[in-house]
Amino acid sequence: MAYLPLPDDTHKAFQKNGKSSDNAFLLFNRYLEGEGYNFDSFDTKKTKEELYAKIQKINIETAAFANRAEASINRLEKAGFKTRIIKLTSVSRLIVGLGDKNALEVGFTFHPLYGYPYIPGSSLKGLCRSWLEIAENNFGGKELDGDELTRQIRSESREIFGSVSKSETESENKLGDVLFFDAIPTGDTKLAFDVDIMNPHYSPYYSDPQNPPGDWYSPVPIKFLTIREGATFAFFLASRFEDSLNKAATWLVNGLSELGIGSKTSSGYGYFDPADLEEIKRQKLKEANEAELRKIQKLKEKAAELAKNVKSPLQTFRDNLDNGIKENLGGIIYDSWKALESDAEKIEGAKAIFEKFGKILKKKKGKDFVKDLTEWANK
Question: Which of 20, 64, 163, 376 is most deeply buried (CB count within 10 A of its CB)?
Answer without folding.
Answer: 376
